[in-house]
Design a protein that fits this description.
Blueprint: E1 16-20, E2 33-40, E3 43-48, H1 58-64, H2 70-73, H3 78-81, E4 85-87, E5 91-101, E6 110-112, E7 117-120, H4 123-131, E8 138-147, H5 151-157, E9 161-165, H6 168-171, H7 179-186, H8 191-198
Parallel strand pairs: 4-8
Antiparallel strand pairs: 1-2, 1-9, 2-3, 3-8, 5-7, 5-8, 6-7
Length: about 200
């Protein structure tokens, strides 16, 4: 099986994780881990994978979208009932994006990011998840993080972000609170040490 694409060969980071440094100036991204879905000379787009969206559950979202009427919500599998809705980023926060395993694909609406992870932003995937015909692994987010041409590169140069290869186990880990430390750990970085070191610039 082929390994994930090697964006570093082109200088682009799609399919990688961005990990916010302690010195990150933007509070919205404090301790964020972002899965980068697209990165080119035109800019970048990613989904924050470790922040819960405030004040909404998956079943409430389904009700708002009239996907699962109230009388059906009782029959939803427990895994769906407890599925988190993530804050994907500050852009288009009313729009849903689903990061998911590559076993689900719709020709007109699914963007394959790497060998194991895709992005779909249509309501059909939510209907399929409810019917049991959706992807094996899925992360639902409202909004996304976006950067203009050269902006992400500038932020990385300014030590705003670390980057590392994406591990699907980390992306889809239901324990949102441990993703930041696990991402740093994949680079061999101790979060405590990183915080201490950042205070001695």
């Amino acid at each position: 099986m082929a390994s994930q694409s090697h964006p570093e060969d082109e200088g682009y980071l799609d399919g990688q994780l961005l990990i916010a440094m302690p010195a990150m100036g933007d509070e919205r991204f404090s301790r964020s881990v972002i899965y980068l879905c697209a990165h080119s000379s035109e800019g970048a787009m990613g989904i924050v994978i470790n922040q819960r969206a405030p004040n909404i559950s998956f079943t409430e979202l389904l009700d708002q979208l009239n996907i699962a009427p109230d009388e059906d919500s009782i029959s939803l599998p427990e895994s769906l009932d407890s599925m988190a809705v993530h804050f994907g980023g500050p852009v288009e926060t009313g729009r849903g994006f689903v990061l998911h395993s590559a076993d689900y694909f719709k020709a007109d609406s699914t963007l394959p990011v790497d060998d194991s992870t895709c992005l779909t932003a249509t309501i059909d995937i939510l209907r399929d998840i409810v019917k049991g015909s959706g992807p094996d692994k899925a992360l639902l987010a409202l909004g996304y993080a976006g950067w203009g041409p050269g902006q992400l590169e500038d932020e990385i140069q300014s030590n705003g972000w670390l980057n590392c290869p994406a591990d699907p186990g980390l992306i889809f880990d239901p324990e949102i609170g441990r993703k930041y430390n696990k991402a740093l750990g994949s680079l061999g970085v101790d979060p405590i040490r990183l915080v201490n070191d950042s205070g001695h610039a």
